[in-house]
Write a structure and sequence with these properties.
Number of strands of chain A: 17
EC number (chains A, B): 5.2.1.8
Order of helices and strands of chain A: HHHEEEHEEEEEEEEEEHEEEHE
Strand order of the largest sheet of chain A: 14-4-5-12-11-13-3-2-15
Organism (chains A, B): Undibacterium amnicola
Protein name (chains A, B): peptidylprolyl isomerase
GO molecular function (chains A, B): isomerase activity
CATH class of one domain in chain A: Mainly Beta
Oligomer: homodimer
Shape of chain A: globular
Pfam family, one (chains A, B): Pro_isomerase
Strand content of chain A: 15-25%
Chain lengths: ~300, ~300
């Protein structure tokens, strides 16, 4: 039902925006101005080197009845938490668990509803990695656009991120599709056994308050379209409302034939810079007012399925 | 299934954020610091005068099999478009039509999939009202927080809005739940017969490019959890994928007994200012880092069901 439904398709589609059904061929034919390059144009002109293959060692396949959600982890931003999540995956911790929460305009969260499943090798407590130190020569494609939540925002290795030069710290931001490690009040009370994906307007207030470990690269719509939970915080009230997680696997542990080959647009290229500009000031005949701005979480980071 | 599931519940819930299932009673008991007021505290202390009843003449009930979506229109921002939408509703235009599009992290859109339904009294073309003029003494509760998309942002009559003092224009912003009038390339090609609701990260790039007429005040989760369309732009490819719209009615035309009484928090009060501050710098034991900022579309505008 959702074959080939990728972020790329969504992102491409977004630029065409909100066509009324009454757009006539005549209107389309009346195009006279030379439009600026659109995002679609820029992606068309991209070279193989503008894309990178997801790292199978850091890629998770979360399998549900309706399909596969693909998450790429970013160990450079949360080495201890990523290591523990991978340990949990390797011991089969998530297999047979469930989506336990769908909180509208916020997050979908999964884990063990009964809180009874035992840990084998994974740690019960992992230090929160809300920010990490960076070195001056660390890669960072900075956005020139103002941001209220961080001194600097931009992209690192195809992840949306922010930095504070004063403290020399960096962190992944809570944009749509970001994956975080649920925790209690103590900063080391999370361990990766319950994870959430952002499925609403970016809750950037969570930045620097919780560990972000990666991003959904494919299949986010399987999480964002889950029925909302009617309990407090969007938790499901009845077991039958929960969606089964058949399994979670590391891509590298899955036979090649069963993998999905995804490439994400690199964010340290001229192509990406052009794409951001095309979104900051949209080309085409539809837009009448140029925003001359793009907010970090409105920057698309296209993913494509490679045959 | 979603009785009493309101924005208020969602908004209240949001402040408790992402509890890991492992929060122990012991951790809760270790609370020693006096927390700042939370949003829940502030709402508890609100007076009757801090709320306003939705105007039944400008409130739409969109009825689907799974329940009712309630939209409040803001004629002061789009008088011609709101008048035409109300004319369409009064002539029964939407009854039996469908949700035609669910575009992940963007919008849900409804209208006539066949584009064959006739207009009776409503106009086929309505001038776009992307911005409107405002007077210096027009009410506007300005947010002090920086915004990249507009010179000034804030709230008018419980709607998120922006202003440009240079041009003395104001407009409703594309925050989550905003309702807009789909159009083609021509600015007068929309007429309200196809409307969309924002169901993803605020596409503020649409601001000043299309007419925003109001906001979903209740039942947004019925739109945001729709299965995503697999066609271009998230349109449904097969008729059976579409969700029926049983009817759309103006609340004032619905018998009192069948109405749902909703109140929205007023945004021109000290209570609202306190609420915004409680969200800008969160109270409680969970938050470790104070954002000292709130983005316009992260400001909750609570709605409550009155018995």
């Amino acid at each position: 039902m959702r074959t080939n439904f990728t972020y790329t398709k969504i992102a491409l589609a977004a630029i065409f925006s909100l066509l009324a059904s009454s757009v006539s061929a005549q209107q389309k034919a009346s195009k006279v101005s030379l439009p600026k390059l659109s995002m679609a144009d820029i992606l068309k002109s991209s070279q193989a080197s503008d894309w990178r293959v997801l790292n199978p060692d850091n890629t998770l396949y979360l399998e549900m009845e309706k399909g596969r959600v693909v998450i790429e982890l970013a160990p450079e931003f949360a080495p201890k938490n990523v290591a523990n999540i991978k340990a949990l995956v390797k011991e089969g911790y998530f297999d047979g668990l469930a989506m336990i929460r769908s909180h509208d305009n916020y997050v979908a969260q999964w884990g063990d509803p009964g809180e009874k499943r035992e840990f084998k090798n994974a740690a019960k407590k992992v230090e929160g990695e809300f920010t990490v130190k960076y070195k001056n020569d660390a890669p960072f494609t900075r956005l020139p656009d103002v941001d209220g939540y961080a001194p600097q925002v931009g992209h690192v290795n195809s992840f949306a991120a922010a930095r504070d030069p004063k403290t020399q710290t960096t962190w992944l931001t809570h944009c749509y599709g970001a994956i975080g490690v649920a925790r209690g009040n103590e900063t080391d009370s999370g361990n990766g056994s319950s994870l959430y994906a952002v499925t609403g307007h970016a809750p950037r207030n969570l930045d620097r308050n919780i560990t972000v470990v990666g991003r959904v690269m494919y299949g986010i719509e399987l999480l964002s379209s889950l029925p909302r939970g009617t309990g407090a915080l969007g938790f499901y009230e009845k077991p039958e409302e929960r969606t089964l997680i058949k399994s979670v696997r590391i891509a590298a542990d899955v036979p090649e034939a069963e993998r999905i080959k995804l490439e994400v647009l690199r964010t340290d290229t001229a192509n990406f810079k052009a794409l951001v500009e095309a979104q900051r000031n949209r080309g085409g005949d539809w837009y009448k007012f140029a925003a001359n701005h793009i907010e970090l979480c409105n920057v698309p980071i296209p993913v494509r399925v490679v045959k």
